[in-house]
């Protein structure tokens, strides 16, 4: 009895936070229930709340154990990342994240050895089994699990038809390596289509977990910052889908972590490290070329880590030339697949308009971000899940974002030099301009007064360098993040059950 009382006393603050978060979750789900009452689903609410109690209990017990053992942030991430990632994976039905059906078709194509798609008249895709169509069809939010259960027995057949997936055909096969391996395993073992798709998800998620874990472990500053960013509902959604965004996000974070590790570590930048740097830079550039400026961060690695300053810039320039060459080769190949996705789009005219009217374009750019910046921020955090049609509490996410800024400020014992922050700022601005301009050229009708197609999730790869701009050294560095951990994980409890509730 004394041991129990002592345990409760020692964890009093954590218990208080846990109780507060439980009731916040409860009332947020109750608000969702009020929507469902009108649909005759009131009886489900008590089961949802029972699950909420169980999840909070598990989070409290596991977190308490980890805190008592003083586990580092990377191990906290490993446990809770796998826990919530698995729940997200199976509570978000296959095909319910943006373009996941087309990502599956592209991954399947690559898994058969066809690295480049086929252009057929005004369509781009390939000949794939006809009954895939039955599984990738998008259904209403409700009864999604019921539909998945009905489709569970459907296997690949030998009859083929042409599928059009022009938007994902533009992606390099490198973007789909983990997904394609999972799908290839499923095909060889003759698994049903749905299970094969989930194998692709699992391989994609596994790579994300591994790279984020290593990034947190190696980075000398902002370990909890990476943990918080990676546990964002939108981060987890992308991580468990078949989209290349999972790899884009984890490779971007890994590259920043890699550079900062070598900036503040005394080890020599040897051949092995150069190979790792090359893999990360090639991967990030082939995933999405708009994130190519992140490779400039290699400049921050001190000259002393190389044989000489000349040797450093020779290696970096050689890598830059290789990355650019590979991108030019893929751009040449993918240019054959360019078709009109949106009515009124004329890429050539848009490029000429930007070149001839730069001030007008920057006015369009400014107006777009002035009007939509708050929307981009909340959707990046996860306010609109799945096909932007599952709504998460914005106040809840705003508090989450404030904790991210708090982690950026207090989770440090190193003062980032001004040149580091300047380069982080420059790279981030370049990427924002590239994202915006690429969508203005490829997705927005000619001379439209605003840029269309920008989504908050596109900014996740630069959230880490942007937040590190807030970093500063305080006298007290031993900040206790345990209560914030509870908030982060409780928020994900709410989102997981919201997703479950939405699809029942």
Description:
The structure is a single chain. This protein is mostly helical. 65% of the residues lie in helices and 4% in strands. It is built from 21 helices and five strands. It has helices at 2-10, 12-37, 45-68, 73-91, 100-111, 132-136, 144-151, 166-169, 177-188, 193-218, 223-230, 233-239, 245-264, 271-287, 309-334, 347-356, 358-381, 394-410, 418-442, 463-467, 482-503; strands spanning 118-120, 123-129, 160-164, 384-385, 390-391. Strands 1-2-3 form a three-stranded antiparallel sheet. It has a two-stranded antiparallel sheet with strand order 4-5. Strand 1 and strand 2 form a beta hairpin. The longest helix is centred in the N-terminal third of the chain and has 26 residues, at 12-37. The mean pLDDT is 88.
Number-wise, the strands total 5
What class would the helix/strand composition place it in? mainly alpha
What's the tally of helices?
21
What share of the residues lie within helices? 55-70%
The pLDDT mean sits at: 88
């Amino acid at each position: 009895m004394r041991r129990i009382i002592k345990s409760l006393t020692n964890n009093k603050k954590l218990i208080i936070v846990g109780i507060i978060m439980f009731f916040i979750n409860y009332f947020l789900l109750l608000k969702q229930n009020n929507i469902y009452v009108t649909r005759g689903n009131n009886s489900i609410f008590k089961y949802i709340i029972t699950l909420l109690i169980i999840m909070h209990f598990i989070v409290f017990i596991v977190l308490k154990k980890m805190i008592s053992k003083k586990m580092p942030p990377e191990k906290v991430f490993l446990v809770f990342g796998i826990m919530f990632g698995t729940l997200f994976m199976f509570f978000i039905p296959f095909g319910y994240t943006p373009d996941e059906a087309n990502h599956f078709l592209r991954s399947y194509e690559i898994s058969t050895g066809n690295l480049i798609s086929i252009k057929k008249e005004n369509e781009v895709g390939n000949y794939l089994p006809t009954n895939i169509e039955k599984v990738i069809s998008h259904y209403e939010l409700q009864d999604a699990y019921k539909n998945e259960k009905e489709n569970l027995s459907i296997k690949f057949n030998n009859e083929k038809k042409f599928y059009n997936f022009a938007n994902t055909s533009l992606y390099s096969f490198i973007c789909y390596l983990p997904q394609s391996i999972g799908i290839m395993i499923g095909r060889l073992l003759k698994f049903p289509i749905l299970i094969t798709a989930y194998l692709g998800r699992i391989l994609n998620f596994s790579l994300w977990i591994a790279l984020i874990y290593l990034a947190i472990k190696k980075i000398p500053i902002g370990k909890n910052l990476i943990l918080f960013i990676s546990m964002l509902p939108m981060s987890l959604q992308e991580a468990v889908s078949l989209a290349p965004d999972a790899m884009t996000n984890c490779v971007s974070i890994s590259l920043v972590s890699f550079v900062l590790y070598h900036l503040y570590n005394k080890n020599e930048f040897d051949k092995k490290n150069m190979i790792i740097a090359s893999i990360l830079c090639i991967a990030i550039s082939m995933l999405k070329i708009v994130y190519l400026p992140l490779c400039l961060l290699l400049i921050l690695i001190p000259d002393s880590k190389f044989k000489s300053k000349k040797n450093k810039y020779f290696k970096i320039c050689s890598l830059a030339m290789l990355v650019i060459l590979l991108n030019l080769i893929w751009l040449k190949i993918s240019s054959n697949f360019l078709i009109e996705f949106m009515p009124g789009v004329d890429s050539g005219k848009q490029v000429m308009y930007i070149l001839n009217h730069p001030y007008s374009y920057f006015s369009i750019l400014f107006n777009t971000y002035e009007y939509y910046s708050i929307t981009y921020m909340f959707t990046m955090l996860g306010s609109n899940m799945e096909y932007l049609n599952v709504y998460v509490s914005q106040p809840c996410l705003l508090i989450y974002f404030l904790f991210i800024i708090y982690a950026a400020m207090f989770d440090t014992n190193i003062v980032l030099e001004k040149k580091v922050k300047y380069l982080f700022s420059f790279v981030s601005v370049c990427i924002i301009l590239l994202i915006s301009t690429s969508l203005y050229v490829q997705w927005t009708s000619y001379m439209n007064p605003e840029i269309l197609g920008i989504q908050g999730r596109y900014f996740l790869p630069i959230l880490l360098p942007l937040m590190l701009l807030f970093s500063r050294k305080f006298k007290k560095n031993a900040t206790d993040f345990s209560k914030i951990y509870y908030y982060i994980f409780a928020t994900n409890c709410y989102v997981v059950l919201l997703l479950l509730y939405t699809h029942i």
